[in-house]
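User: For documentation purposes, I need each entry recorded in a consistent format: the amino acid sequence on its own, followed directly by the corresponding structure tokens. There are two entries in this batch. Please keep commentary to a minimum and don't merge the entries.

Assistant: Recorded as requested. Entry 1:
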Amino acid sequence: MRRTVIAIAVAALSSACAQMPERNVPADVEGMLPDRFTDVVAIPDTGISATWWRAFDDPKLTGLVEQGLQYNSDLIVAAERLREARATMRSVRSAQLPEVSAFVGGTRQRTWMAILPDAPLVENGQYGVQVSYEADLWGRLASQTEAERQRYLAQGYTLASLRLTIAAELVRGYLQAQSLSEARTVLEENVQVLEDQLRLSQRRYEVGAISELDLQRFRSELEDSRAQLAETTQQLRAVQRALLLLTGQLPTDERVARINIEREERPPAVLPSVPTGLPSSLLNRRPDLRAAEANLAAAGADLSAARRAWLPTIAITGSAGEVSPSLSELFKDGMNVWSVAATVTQAIFDGGRRNAAIEISDARREQLAESYRATVRQAFGEVLDALDARTAADAVYRARTEQSDALRTALRLAQRRYDEGYSDYLGVLDARRSLLQSRLAVAEARRNGGAAYVDLVLAIGGGWSEST
């Protein structure tokens, strides 16, 4: 049922957007942005990937995202809000159409009078149809309908924006779980090595080969690694529960165990590279910007309707049917009757109510226009930040990997010097601690590389193809 609700809502949005008129962008915003985000030759915009998370080539991640897009509670609520907005639009639009009703009725009465105790029984009946219609000569009703249609579109774009956000949160959470899983593996390996060496050091201490100071330092290092392992394990389980909640599932221990997210060894470079000359027109596809545009258009339509409320309203009513002086003969031998009436109403004085409504609508439109300008500026900045973060993430990952390799060699040399009696065990502990931190930093750098890709996807409103 939930999946059906979201599917219907998205389909309705697609149908509505297909009939959407020209975008309602303030004139000063159209020329605000440059053609591209970088000072290189611009390239054509060939579309975005709706399933951008598949770039990670991870079936487990794809399954989580697709499940979240079907069963996430926030998405289901947003889909119902879209359905509500669509019904509201239809309700307002119905005011532009005639209202037709059928009627049938009859009466039987006798008036008692003292001077005429045997007064006759009087009865009559009628049936027919009645039509009422407001002629929208000035477009007030059409403006109200347009306002609700734009709000419907805005709600649809809000749903699309939420879908993008939910997918991004699932990918971020999955990447964090992978990083924590890798960190846990590193710490487990470190604890195991330290436990083995503690037993060896204990025997060497007993025969007087090392001092008690070295033994206690080693034991302290082991306990520190155990503490880090416990904290990392708890953080991993918390992230896994959060992933289950995002996918609309109850985070039981059994389901957490079934997630079984394994560490990822692939570097950020395997993700799609950023196209050269990424066009700034990609911002046009950000659903939050399109929602802001639709709300701005709705405010403009509200202002138009408020101004036209001062114009005369023309109401036309008509009816046709039959009347019979006998209820038993109502549908057999009635008399045909019909009537047509028109009423023109012009407001003269309303205490300033209509003028206040105009001012309110105008103020709301100006607020939304300025908010839209700010949103565009912020969106452009987010893209530039995400581009820089993506470039930096690749460089950081390469540097952290080289650092880890160097520290691995340093640990091997420190252990050899200690075994040969050229240095105390403090040098080995320092080298091991540095290597541990570097391996954890490599895992974090890999996560940051994936997160930078996700941030760029969010900034431009979706993924991109290699030919973009």
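Entry 2:
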Amino acid sequence: MKKSVNNFQVSGIVSKDAEIREFTNHSVARFPLGVSRQDKNSEDTSWVSALIGIEVWRKNDNTQSFDLLTKGNLITAEGYFSPQEWTDNDGVKHHKLVMVANKIYETPDREETPEPVPDKGKKKGKK
């Protein structure tokens, strides 16, 4: 059987300021990342959006990257998906998939590429 690699990269907008928890040696930042894509259906175009739960773990002396995790920032996260399971106080089992980011960084805004301007100059082959 072939092995698959659980490694992903996603860019999106931080939807809410990260919730940061500090432990003895490490800290974790948890936040939702808003992602969207354009969906074309015949002549109609719409945007389909979703939120991805992201976790970022760092040693306590290396948490400066958490400064990026404020609402509205456009970031890229690289990491892997981790299934999480728990049972609530009523005995109900829950499951969710969280992306654990090994690397986060600012995503530069994409600039639109201008349309090429047709050349109205000299015709080729004539002098």
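Summary note for entry 2:
The mean pLDDT is 86.
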